[in-house]
Amino acid sequence: MITTALTELLHIRVPVVQGGMQWVGKPPLPAAVSNAGGLGLITALTQPNPEALRTVIRETRAATNKPFGVNLTILPSINPPDYEGFARVAVEEGVKIFETAGNNPGKLIEFFKARGCIVIHKCTTIRHAKSAERLGVDVVSIDGFECAGHPGEEDIGGIVLLARAAQELKIPYIASGGIADGRGLAACLALGAAGVNMGTRFMCTVESPIHQNIKEKIVASTEYDTTHIFRTLNNTSRVFKNVVSQQVVTIERRPGGAKFEDVRDLVSGARGRVVFEKGDPDYGIWTAGLVLGLIKDIPTCEELLSRIEREAEEIIGGMAKLVKAKAKL
């Protein structure tokens, strides 16, 4: 068994967190991840309102007696969701672990910490990680350039970010982006991380609530099948390379650039939701990381986490054999 600061803090067996994912973090997935020894996360904003979140928290608790948490991501929006309401309901329902992400999370972090909760905050730069540390978070999730969704605007890969985190942070941190197996977990532990966060890999499991066609598309894809949108809008997002995302990139590359209004209909969240519900990978925008190239099957969460745990233990044990005692003169 691998024991780290993360497993001890969260009381989990395997140092793996299932990241929050829009339209994916519904009760069957986080419950399965937690039952398998990791930390499952419900995605709050997948629900239409705080009371709906209350319902899915109760559904998840009915499906697992292991620790699970709630992801709450602060997104730029003309009509912001009721973040305070979502946070309040989750705490009322006894949730003690939260993953936060997005801009200006200070008020949320303060709210959770004042109520004795554990906070994992996602960051794409060491600068932001140190800011989160000052705000009192318990763990920082370091998102490398490989990750699905928003990798920030600095384009720094995970290896450098994790090594920099080891130099700069005093609190535990976990790695996010490009991890799908025990080799990735072992590598991140070697870089000082206390565990890993996986999103795309968990999308492609039996318990993931997305359409089977999308899972099979993930298996058939490679590390070359993602693209960046919103680069010219300084809000970069790594998504699956399909007809719609290629249209967005083409519009952004027009002479004079593009405004969000030019691509609004193409990137509609409603269209992305239909992708996962109906199984047409070209219908809308959906996020996916470079880890696509490492995903070769659709296991249960139990099979996946047991395999990752076993592989990591074997690799770590094998690494120890590389160290030979120096011959005495």
- How many β-strands, per DSSP? 10
Secondary-structure element series: HEHEHEHEHEHEHEHEHHEEHHHH
Helix content percent band: 40-55%
Unreliable residue stretches:
none
Radius of gyration: 19 Å
Strand portion, in percent? 5-15%
In DSSP terms, counting alpha (H) and pi (I) runs of 4 or more, how many helices? Answer: 14
Structural class computed from helices and strand pairing: alpha/beta
Main beta-sheet strand count, sense and barrel state:
8 strands, parallel
Shape: globular
Mean pLDDT over the full residue set: 96
Strands side by side in the biggest sheet:
1-8-7-6-5-4-3-2
Distance between the termini: 38 Å
Short summary:
By secondary structure, this protein is α/β, with parallel strands linked by helices. Helices cover 41% and strands 14% of the residues.
Keywords:
329 residues, alpha/beta, 8-stranded parallel beta sheet, two-stranded antiparallel ribbon, 14 helices, globular
